[in-house]
Each structure stands twice: as structure tokens, then as C-alpha cells.
Amino acid sequence: MSQQRHFGPNRGVSTYHTFEEMRLNSNLFQSIREHGFNHPTDIQKGAIMSITSGKDVIVQAASGTGKTSALAISILQRINTDMPQTQALVLSPTHGLAMQMREMIAGLGHYKNVQVQLCVEGINMGNNSHMSEQVPHVISGTPGQVYNMLRQGTLRAEVIEMLVLDGADYIFDHGFIDRFQDLYNYLPSPLQLVFMSNYLTDDILGIAETTMKNPVRILEDPGEDDYSNA
Ligand SMILES: Nc1ncnc2c1ncn2[C@@H]1O[C@H](COP(=O)(O)OP(=O)(O)OP(=O)(O)O)[C@@H](O)[C@H]1O
């Protein structure tokens, strides 16, 4: 049963203390167990079901608190893998982080048969022999490359319903802020936005104010930020 926790800005966020309470897809649940995730981390207790609900969400927590896994689980719960169409875009600041995100989604999505495509410089949909024949359900890439592919039409955006920024502070810090609106304009509406970040910066809050609808804010509880008991 979910409970409300009331500390600071997380007021009103439902907290789920076990993965069972989240009633996740059974194939996804099996993968979570096989990854050895017995209990959600503190961030995951609030973030997974907030994102899964379809609301706009901002998550701020330190490295290693389970943010990337929370994103992967939420995306996998949201998308319909029976539908061969791209439904979620995940942007990361670097090639390496985009690759890590791809691996996390592919690993946790194994039993859901998810197709997840890396989209970074040098690996381009449409002209790359490593590209699978199937349309990916999820794209994990860097902002510049994903933007180019949307512009060129190599990435079909019609049914994309989630745009996720992992490392949003770093992305906006490194010049992408001016391009965000352009990329956003290529995507259909309504679109769920999720920003994950180690720090909440003015850039993130400014962009959230203009693009997000009443975002849920999940900020690390300073007293409970490690997952050693998870
Ligand atoms: N619920 C969980 N139970 C046990 N281990 C977990 C759980 N969630 C995540 N982990 C593991 O903890 C490590 C950190 O998780 P994750 O990468 O999701 O965190 P992060 O906050 O995104 O960190 P970073 O910013 O360093 O990538 C990974 O090895 C992951 O497999």
C-alpha cells in the first residue's frame, strides 16, 4: 500500500516501499529480481511510480542513488513493446552515459523484448550495419545526434510520448540549452518530460517552468540517500 511522505518539496509524492506494491509488468518484475534489486532505493520509492503515472517529473539526487535504474524501470513500465514504434527518447550528456543507459534499459527490458537503440555520433540509424532491422521502442542518445536524426527524419517521432534528460544539469551546462526548444518542437504533444539530475540548477528550473506542466519534484532526502539496505 502506498504512503504519503511529507518532507520538503516531496510533499504529496506517493512512496512505495517494495517493488511488489508498484504492481509492475511481470516480465519487468522478473528482470528486476534477476538484477538482485530486492527493495527500491529511496529515490526509486517515489520516482518510479511518479514517472509511470505519466506526469512531468524532476528528480534530483546524488550519483549512485539508483536514478538511472529508476528511469529504465519507469520507461519499461510505460512503453508497449508489442507496438513496433519509438515511444521514448532518453538524452544523456556523453556517449558513455548514453551507452550505460542503453545497457540498463536493454538488461531490465530483456523479458519484455525491448528494442533500444544507441544514437550517438558515429552510430547513426539508417546508415549503420549495427542498427537492428526493427524499429526501436526506445532511443538512448546524445542531444546533438538525436536532434540531427529528428531533423533528417531518420527518427520517426509520431508516437514518442516521453522525453527524458538524464544528467540534465550537465546537458544544460554544456550548450544544449539553446537547442532544447528546437528538439522539443519536433516532438508530438502531449509529451511527458522527465529531468534527472545530480543538482537542481537555475537552467533546469527555468526550462521546467516554461515546458513542464505542474512537475512532480522528487528531491533526495538527505537523511536517507544510500541504498545499502536496498
Ligand atoms: N533497488 C536496487 N537494489 C540494489 N541495487 C540497485 C538498485 N537500484 C540500483 N542499483 C544498483 O546501484 C548502482 C547505481 O545505480 P544507478 O546507476 O541506477 O544509480 P545512479 O544514481 O544513476 O548513479 P550514477 O549517477 O552513478 O549512474 C548500479 O550498480 C545499480 O545496478
TrEMBL record:
EC number(s) recorded for this UniProt protein: 3.6.4.13
Catalysed transformations (reactions): ATP + H2O = ADP + phosphate + H(+)
Domain Helicase ATP-binding, residue spans: 48-218
Signal peptide: none
Family annotation (Gene3D superfamilies): P-loop containing nucleotide triphosphate hydrolases
Motif segment (Q motif): 17-45
GO CC terms: cytosol
InterPro entries cross-referenced by the UniProt entry: DEAD/DEAH_box_helicase_dom (IPR011545), DEAD_box_RNA_helicase (IPR050079), Helicase_ATP-bd (IPR014001), P-loop_NTPase (IPR027417), RNA_helicase_DEAD_Q_motif (IPR014014)
Keywords: ATP-binding, Helicase, Hydrolase, Nucleotide-binding, RNA-binding
GO MF terms, alphabetically ordered: ATP binding; hydrolase activity; RNA binding; RNA helicase activity
Positions of the DEAD-box RNA helicase Q domain: 17-45
Stored SUPFAM superfamilies: P-loop containing nucleoside triphosphate hydrolases (SSF52540)
Matches recorded under Pfam families: DEAD
Protein name: RNA helicase
Lineage of producing organism: Eukaryota, Fungi, Fungi incertae sedis, Zoopagomycota, Kickxellomycotina
